[in-house]
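Task 17 of the worksheet. Students: predict the tertiary structure of the chain below and write it out as structure tokens. Keep your answer in the requested format; marks are given for formatting as well as content.
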Amino acid sequence: QHQHQHQQQPQDLDGMKEEEDNLDLLKISSTIAHLCEIFLLENSDTLKQQQSSASASASISLSQNNNNYMMNGMGMSMLPGAGAGIVTADTVRYLRKHHMMDPSEYVAFLLEEGMEMGMDKDMQQVVDLDELLEMNQPEYYDPSTSVSASTGIGDINISTVSSGMTPYWSLVRKLVLWGSLEEAWAVLSRHSACKRSQMLIASGESSHVDRTVEEDAAAFELIRSLLLSAPIPGGINRDNDDGLANVRDDADDNNYRNDNNSDDDGEELLPGLPRDGYKNWDVDAEDPNVFDFNVHAILNLHTTWKTTIDDIIKTHASVRNLIRRIPMLNTCIFDVILKTKKCYMSEVDGGKNSDTWAERLSSELLYVRPQTVKEDMHIRATDHMKAVRRYVSADEDEDVSAVEEITVLIMKGNAGAVIGGLNSYGGGSSAALPATMTALQCNLLVDSGTIELTELSYDIESELMLSASSAILSSFAIQGHNKVGVRLAMRLLQPHIIPENHRVTACIADVLARHWPQTDAEVVSLLSSCKDSVSRGSRRMLDACDSLCFSRSLHYDRKGNGNGDYVYAGKSVHFLLRAIEQSSFFGSEMMNEDGSTNDLFPVAFSAFTSTICFRRLTSLCANTVQFVLDQISQCFEQEDLDITALAEPLKIARSIMDTVAEDEVYHLVSTDPCVSLLQHVMDVGINLATTNNVESARSIIECLKDRKSTDGSIIILAHPGLYGNLLTIAFDILEAEAKADLTPKISAFDLEGMQILMIRFTQYCSRDELYINQVSSSNMRKVVTPSKMRFMLGKGLMRAFVMQNAMLDKDGDKDWCNEHNRSGVDEITEQSVECLLEPCL
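Model answer:
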């Protein structure tokens, strides 16, 4: 067992390493997608139309810090933070989200390195961000020193050099460098001097408070106002860096921020500097006043804020005294804001506090060049990348890393770099999530007009969509969730399933044709997804829908047979009708306004006749007809009719016919011979069970008589193979009438009915001559010999004549006869007799 544990441990480590690698790849993909959203997706056709209709000036010339910048005044962005061609706010949020650590992670990084440099590692305890800020003097804590002191939460190391760059001050500096000024003040408020002054002022004993403490309280309050009133692009916190501020629960924010920043955004902490001034960099694309963006007003507000900071540092005595006693305030806050370019730290002079290219670029956009336009962003990024690499490599011209190169290319507007980057970092690995991200990103670029498919030699959008679909199917199939994979792949490709896109249509149709749905809801969902493509005339998708419905219908057929009955017949028919309904939509979008179809779809609404499910429905009706007739014929073999024996077959027929009659597509199948035949045969059985021979006879004649079909041809509902059963039932009715002590004026079959029975009997007797398939044909009961049948037909014909004459002798008929002369009646009788005696066929 111990050896087995040793064998499992390397496998667990390999699995964890693989998960970490996959997570890193997804993070890079997310980085590329976010950057693409900022620099590429804002160039949509809708935006261009808005720009062309805008009344803003064509260009604006701005000058600040002796640097001139030309900006397109109509280059509005659809994303927050972009206006007049400026993408500073979005870029800052992007850099903070993807290239900068979380404050707690950064502190853990600093403390971990400090622990490695410390001398007494065994005596030191691990401290996280919350514990650091709860110390009495967090600004002095440095794990790299070995001097211990009591701070209220245990014996920990305290730096002997109070002016050093301790982890506390490193965190404050980084937060200011990132533009997270709200978090920076939350950390600064935990400084021992700030807490001491706040506690003494809050006690209310101002007469006993040291004047220095009062000055410190006033200075810290002024610093708070300056930080929280910063009108910098991207906001003064990281809440909306991921774009989910509207749906995130505020209770999830860090406690150390909530305790100190509960002010209303509308509050004005300093004259002329509202707390929500940073929101002026954000432009809502759905706002009808989107073109009211005034870059001059925003820059003036930003300049006013920086000038106010400079004036306070130079003229406000309490702030100057506080900086003199705590010089790290100047180093970590005011130098970063006012002397940004000079405050950068390299690995040579900063060590673990060195600034990355993203931090340098972010601080420049926040405090030096907030008006940087999109076209210049890649230049600034490249300069900072080279500046950082200059300190770590002797070769100043050394190329940047692959991720940095992709970043610069996207900032330049290279859409190919987006697809190539996503494909390199997981999109081409056949994994479902990265492959789908790549396909959807390409779809967005195509829809926005950034990628023109007409300029490419192949359809890259379809290629990536098919690759993502294949990855989804394989990934979920491996996990045993094949139906989920099919549904997701269907939703992914649904907008591209059109007759013109043969590859996508063929792919999804093939997947659906081989899929065996497990639930009714799954079939309904897939059919709903296919409806649009079928309406647009996709024959392959119609066949796929037909296959789905057929498989579900077959499922209920097998389930019913397994239980020994046909209780699931209605459900089986229901899904056959769903396929017919789907086929009725075929080509409906291709129809003209007058209801006619184009040449490509001449008979859009008759497509159901060629589907498998329609043929299955007609076959099911025909088989049910045969089954019901056989049961009826067997019941009459006994002297008394066994009604219970007819219950099961009639229940089957009733279930099928009720499902068909109550369905929305009843008008499409009601005229089909097999459906009509089943209806009449069911009526035969029901009327026999209720001893209503007249209605039973009428239904038999409906099955056997000639009629016109919808195409004008002459047809008979019952095929010749059913003549034996129907004639046997007719024989039983005629025999029952002959044996009964009834007046000869009553007959279930009228003269026309007897004529039809005699014609069908003649055809039945001539089966060999007519080449009727003897295997599929039903024979009359053995006791019903041809001679007996002829005798009963003759007796029935006699009663039919008598009944007709009796009807003509009624009072109402006499008036009719006197009015039209008797010869007319004789003529009708002579024609009927002549028709009876003429040869059949």
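Marker's comment: The first strand starts at residue 59 and ends at 64. The mean pLDDT is 77.
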